[in-house]
Amino acid sequence: MPENLLKLFGMSNQLLIHDLDKVESTFDVVLGHKQVSPKERNEAYYPQFDARIRVRAKEMAEHYEAFYCLEVSIRTFITEVLRESSGASWWEKEEVVPKVVQDGVKARVQKELDSGISRRSDDPIDYTNFGELGEIIKKNWAVFGSIFNSQKGVERVLASLNTLRGPIAHCSLLAEDEVLRLKLSVRDWFRLME
């Protein structure tokens, strides 16, 4: 009999833990019933933020993720195409990368070094914005023209992404119309390669 009570007690606790997990997940709260991992311990300040801010952050995280994936994939794509067509040192060649883009990147790298923070990358293309990526594509249209179906389309999509980057990068809530514009811009980018 006491053995059955002990099993019942254990099973009740498991059900309670399951229910607490569900409450935490549904309401995005931490009830403190779990042992905290080192990663979670580093994020101990997060619950101190207003719930509305956390909800908005979660909404924006989805858009940031899509934007991040697109921006990194575009840079990777440009790098691969230009490395293939112009060699490993393509970035240093002014006939491949406009001098104004190279100078802008050098200035951003130097600013990072002067601030004493870690460099974000050793690859200069990681310091470019969408406008500059558009200039690189335009300068090398002889190569990219066989991949994309419209130079003006590429310029338009990259300009739109450059504008959308502001609210995402500066932690502002993206308006409903701009969410739609982001989704369409992602589709448009891939449609340009059809």
Description:
The chain is mainly α and 194 residues long. Helices cover 69% and strands 0% of the residues. The protein has helices at residues 2-27, 38-42, 51-86, 99-115, 130-139, 141-144, 151-169, 176-191.
In whole angstroms, how far apart are the ends?
72 Å
Helix residue percentage: 55-70%
How many beta-strand segments? 0
SSE string: HHHHHHHH
Global outline: elongated
Instruction: Give the number of domains.
Output: 2
The overall average pLDDT, rounded, is 86
Strand percentage: under 5%
Class per helix and strand makeup: mainly alpha
Uncertain runs are none
Could you list some keywords that capture this structure?
194 residues; single chain; 2 domains; mainly alpha
Outline the secondary-structure elements.
Layout lengths: L1 H26 L10 H5 L8 H36 L12 H17 L14 H10 L1 H4 L6 H19 L6 H16 L3
Write a concise synopsis of the structure shown:
By secondary structure, the protein is mainly alpha-helical.
